[in-house]
Amino acid sequence: MHNALLQRAITICSQKKLRFTAIRQRVFLLMLEQKGAVSAYDLLEQLQKHDSGAKPPTIYRALEFLLEHHFIHRIESLNAYLKCEHFGCEHPMQLLICEQCKQVIELSDPVIDNAFSEQAEQSGFKITNKILEAHGICHNCLYNEPPL
């Protein structure tokens, strides 16, 4: 499955004439392997298993590329990254973050996005970066069920 997603990412980059280097591809694959949010330093540790010379700037440059081209999301409140379920295109995004198990659920609801943007506009506010994050307790933690 990861190979099919990698191929899709390669195709998107080719169509947009973006340089999807070997390091960027490796970091993208590492992101695909994550079950949830992951820190840059955890990713760096994993990357160093494949490239012992990888340093913090290596991972941050790759993450910056993946963010800029909508392959991943940055979770500001956790200082972590999350693979994008709808990668390769800009789309509305809202994140539900469980405070207990740290599971992150990505929503992509244009109604929420439009309502938020309209409220900002009515308040005379120009949004330049929109990340909607809500913290709470997921269904599994609320009812003491093991995570999926």
UniProtKB/TrEMBL annotation:
The keyword Transferase does not apply. Homodimer. This is Ferric uptake regulation protein. The keyword Coiled coil does not apply. It is found in: Cytoplasm. The lineage of its organism: Bacteria, Pseudomonadati, Pseudomonadota, Gammaproteobacteria, Alteromonadales. Belongs to the Fur family. Its main location: cytoplasm. Keywords: Cytoplasm, DNA-binding, Iron, Metal-binding, Repressor, Transcription, Transcription regulation, Zinc.
